[in-house]
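Batch job 17 of 40 flagged for manual review because the log was empty.
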Amino acid sequence: MPTEHLSDLILGIDHVALAVCDIDSALPIYAALGFKLLDRSEVHGEHSGMLYATLKSRDATLVLVQGTSPASQVSQFIDKFGAGMHHVAFAVSNLDEALRRSYEAGISTDTPVVSDTGIRQTFLHRDERTGVRIELIERHDAPFSEQNVEQLFRSLEAKGLY
């Protein structure tokens, strides 16, 4: 049986995460484009330490991520790939089904599914050819969860991934 595509499960782009060297320097650029700062937060960890800021303009959501040390996953990402797109998160209607189809297509995950009230998400394995990491996220009118972000990045940290 051929692999089923995820197209009927993908609702759109939930957010794009951009790795930046300095969030404070990047904010005015996105403000000039009409993005409003929704919140800022920090994840602590030896390699998962990062600052992040969530920005929104109409239906577009950006998350700026900045490493807190040279050992940070985000700093390592920038060293390898340069500043820019860290990951793209696709909103899906059914995360379990999306994962089943991904596994069937030979796509693995780098994190477990992490959940909080109204939100479930996971990172797929980064495509080594492009450097792009895909996140699948099922949301039910829920904002970003600091708990989920921390769990996702700690899961990557435990595997030495960025």
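Reviewer: the log was empty due to a logging misconfiguration, but the result itself is present. The chain is about 25% helix and 35% strand. Unflagging and moving on to job 18.
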